[in-house]
Design brief:
This protein has eleven helices and ten strands. β4 (174-181) and β5 (184-191) form a beta hairpin. 50% of the residues lie in helices and 15% in strands. It has three domains: 9-132, Butyryl-Coa Dehydrogenase, subunit A, domain 1, CATH 1.10.540.10; 136-228, Butyryl-CoA Dehydrogenase, subunit A, domain 2 (Beta Barrel), CATH 2.40.110.10; 231-378, Up-down Bundle (Butyryl-CoA Dehydrogenase, subunit A, domain 3). The model has no long low-confidence stretch (mean pLDDT 94). A four-stranded mixed β-sheet has the order 1-4-5-8, with helices on one face.
C-alpha cells in the first residue's frame, strides 16, 4: 500500500538550511571565482597531459571546519543531523562554481552509510563528520551500479576483483565497496592506503574531478551491513544519491544560464546585442525553464527521501532524468551562444560543459531513468 505523507512547506527547507546555503554561496563567491577554478584545473590544454587529481586541499580543510561533510550525519555520530535538502543546497552551490573537491562523493557516501544501520557504519559516519573524504566503489566494468552488479568478491572480509568508475578516487581516504559474498551482496569499508589496493586513474573530460578503477587483491575491509543485506541498503540510498548528482547539475546549469545571458546582453552583432535576436533569447528562456523544472523536481525528491515516502525513488528518477536533459541543453546553448570564443580553452564555459556531460551519465542518463520510470509505472513489457 502506498504511504501518503504530507510534505512540509517549502520542501522542509527552513531557516537552518537557508543559512547553510547562504554561507556556502558566500564561501564560494570569496574563494572559487571562475578564473581561480580555471587557473587551478585547466593550466595544461595538452590532450596528452598526465592524468591528475587537482584540487585545493586548503579549501577542503576549510569546508571540513565548516562541517559541510557532516551536515547530514546524525548528531549521535558527530554530525549536524540536517535533512537531505541541506546537502542538496550544498551540492547545488558546489555545482554553481564547478568546485573541485570530494564533497559530492562524500555526501553520496553519507547517504549510503545512513542506510546501513550498524555500529561499523556509525563509526564511519563519525569519521566523515571529522572530514574523512569517502567515495563509492559500487559500479562494475559495464557501468552498472544496480544492486547485484559488481565485479568484486568478498571472502572473510578480504576483497578481490575490480570496482569501476569510482568518483574522486584519488581524493578519497576510504571507499565503500559493494561485493558479492556467500550470503549475497555486501557493503565493505576499506582504506585507500590499505595493502592489496591499486588505484588506476581514468582519463575523463571533467577537469574538476577525477575518476579511477580500483583493483583489490586480498584487501582487508570492514563489513558495513548484516551479511547479504547490501542490496537493500544500496537501493534505499540510491534516491538520495540521484538527488545529489542532480543538484550539482542544477547549480552548473544556473551558472551557464546566467553567464550566457550576461554575454548576450553585452556582445553586439549587426549593431544589436545578441539577446535582441529571437534565435538567442527564446532558447535561453527555455534553458531557464529547464533549470527551474529540474530544481523543483530535485527538491521535491529530496523532501520525499526526508519524509520517507514510498515514491521517493520515482521522484528521484524523475529529477535525474530532467536534470540530465537540462545539463545537455544548457551546455550546448552556452557554447553555441558564446560563438567562436565558446569553443576556446580560455573560455570558462568548457569547465561547466564538461562537468555537465560527466554528471548527466553518472548513475544513468535521462533515457535510462525514463525507461526505469516506465517499468515502475507501467510494468516491464520485456
Amino acid at each position: 500500500m502506498t504511504q501518503t505523507i504530507q510534505q512540509p512547506k517549502n520542501f522542509g527547507f527552513g531557516e537552518d538550511e537557508t543559512l547553510l546555503r547562504d554561507s556556502a554561496r558566500k564561501f564560494f563567491t570569496d574563494h572559487c571565482s571562475p578564473d581561480k577554478i580555471h587557473a587551478l584545473v585547466a593550466q595544461n590544454p595538452d590532450i596528452n597531459r598526465p592524468i591528475e587529481s587537482i584540487y585545493d586541499r586548503d579549501l577542503w580543510q576549510q569546508i571540513v571546519a565548516l562541517g559541510w561533510p557532516g551536515a547530514c550525519v546524525p548528531e549521535a555520530a558527530g554530525g549536524a543531523g540536517m535533512p537531505l535538502v541541506a546537502a542538496i543546497a550544498l551540492a547545488e552551490e558546489a555545482g554553481r562554481v564547478a568546485f573541485p573537491s570530494p564533497l559530492l562523493s562524500t555526501l553520496c557516501a553519507v547517504a549510503l552509510l545512513k542506510t546501513c544501520q550498524t555500529d561499523a557504519a556509525t563509526q564511519a559516519l563519525s569519521e566523515v563528520a571529522e572530514g574523512k573524504a569517502t567515495t563509492l566503489a559500487i559500479t562494475n566494468e559495464k557501468g552498472s551500479w544496480e544492486v547485484a552488479d559488481t565485479d568484486v568478491r568478498a571472502t572473510g572480509g578480504k576483497l578481490n576483483g575490480s570496482a569501476w568508475f569510482v568518483q574522486d578516487a584519488k581524493k578519497a581516504e576510504q571507499f565503500i565497496v559493494s561485493a558479492q559474498d556467500k550470503a549475497g551482496l555486501g557493503l565493505y569499508l576499506i582504506e585507500a592506503t590499505a595493502p592489496g589496493i591499486e588505484i588506476i586513474p581514468d582519463g575523463i573530460i571533467d577537469l574538476t574531478r577525477d575518476q579511477a578503477h580500483i583493483r583489490f587483491a586480498d584487501a582487508d575491509s570492514i563489513e558495513l551491513v548484516a551479511p547479504g543485506t547490501g542490496d537493500l541498503a544500496l537501493a534505499k540510498a540510491m534516491p538520495a544519491i540521484l538527488c545529489l548528482v542532480s543538484a550539482d547539475m542544477v547549480g552548473a546549469g544556473e551558472w551557464l544560464l546566467q553567464t550566457t545571458v550576461e554575454y548576450a546582453k553585452t556582445r553586439v552583432q549587426f549593431d544589436r546585442p545578441l539577446g535582441f535576436f529571437q534565435a538567442v533569447k527564446h532558447p535561453l528562456v527555455n534553458v531557464m525553464l529547464d533549470v527551474d523544472r529540474a530544481r523543483s523536481l530535485v527538491y521535491n525528491a529530496a523532501c520525499s527521501v526526508d519524509c520517507g515516502e514510498d515514491h521517493a525513488e520515482l521522484n528521484a528518477r524523475m529529477a535525474k532524468a530532467q536534470a540530465s536533459d537540462m545539463a545537455v541543453f544548457s551546455s550546448s546553448r552556452a557554447v553555441q551562444f558564446h560563438g567562436g570564443t565558446g569553443f576556446s580553452w580560455e573560455c570558462f564555459v568548457h569547465l561547466f560543459f564538461k562537468r555537465q556531460m560527466h554528471n548527466q551519465v553518472l548513475y544513468g542518463d535521462a533515457k535510462y531513468h525514463r525507461a526505469r520510470l516506465a517499468d515502475m509505472l507501467l510494468g516491464s513489457v520485456a
